[in-house]
Amino acid sequence: MSDCHDDEDIITVEDAVYEMDAQVEESIAILGASDSDNCTYSLGYMERQALFACKTCDLKGDAGICYACSLTCHQEHDLIELYTKRNIRCDCGNSKFNGFECSLIKNKDLLNEKNAYNHNYKGLYCTCDRPYPDPEEEIEDEMIQCVACEDWYHSRHLGSLLPAEFHEMVCYLCVAKYNFLQYYYNEQVNTPDIDVVSVDKEKESKNTDSHFSLSDTLTNEEKQNKIKKNEEMCKLEKLKHQFVNLGNIDKNVSFYWNDGWRSSLCNCAMCLELYEKNSIPFIIKESDTITFYENKGKEKADNLLKDAANKISSMPIVQQVELARGYQELKSGLQNFLRNFPPNQIVKKEDVESFFEELNERKRRRVTNIPPNNCR
Hints:
By secondary structure, the protein is mainly α. It has 11 helices and 7 strands. 38% of the residues lie in helices and 7% in strands. The strands form 3 sheets. It has a 3-stranded antiparallel beta sheet with strand order 2-1-3. Strands 4-5 form a two-stranded antiparallel sheet.
């Protein structure tokens, strides 16, 4: 191998492709599954997508726009990042925008009748109905999203101490609204020690045993029919007979669920109808979870990174080294550039343009010393 490069430079190239800090990781998880070029309107009411609200266009705060529209149609506007929402069709350019047209898809319906909005679209959150970050708030507090209503809550407003680990949370308002969830009390993380079971355990056990026992006098066909009937029994109805002291549960405490709690919910025909009636059929779907959505985003991003790594590895070594240097220079330069600004000062477009002009000037000064591309 030629002396015009060393192994350290090559390793740096590989590392540069995959190097990300925590903030970039989060952005990839949320936006990685999104299409940056095409409006999602034609896909209808999507199961889940990254969404934004535009304060510049929509003063009422009752419209959501997709990721592509946030970049193309509203790139200079004051946007509210909504993380992800379910069952929303992109509103960009419809009647809520007072004549403002979507640049990506023309002739949209005047309204998306099935869209539902909460105060998050106005930049407000929690039962305290405050913005985040809150300029008047001195207490740092974690914001947790309820998987039912999708509002965000300060942990101190959820009625109990935040567990060290949990998978998903349903706020106390939604637990009261969908009160059947209380019967799945034991699916929580660190279930509080409250007496909610008052059925005679011995009696219950005997009843259960007699109900599920298969007599030797039954034919095989009768046994199979009995097994099938037992399997079709409603889990929720069983829990209702077990949890009879639900009044002991604090009505102002939210539920923090274990991983896999959704799969513990009953899937019988009656319960499926119950979920539909309450407009929460998503509650039993793992594909509805943020974890599922984020994994899709990370997988898509990983594939793009692998493609980039393959393309870089096929470049001449000199170009690889130059690319690595450029990446490191951009990263360190941008960090130093931002450190020069006070925490709450807005970075203007002119400041960014000046930064890149200086960066390009340093590159021009260095480019005359680059070895020929055929150096391998």
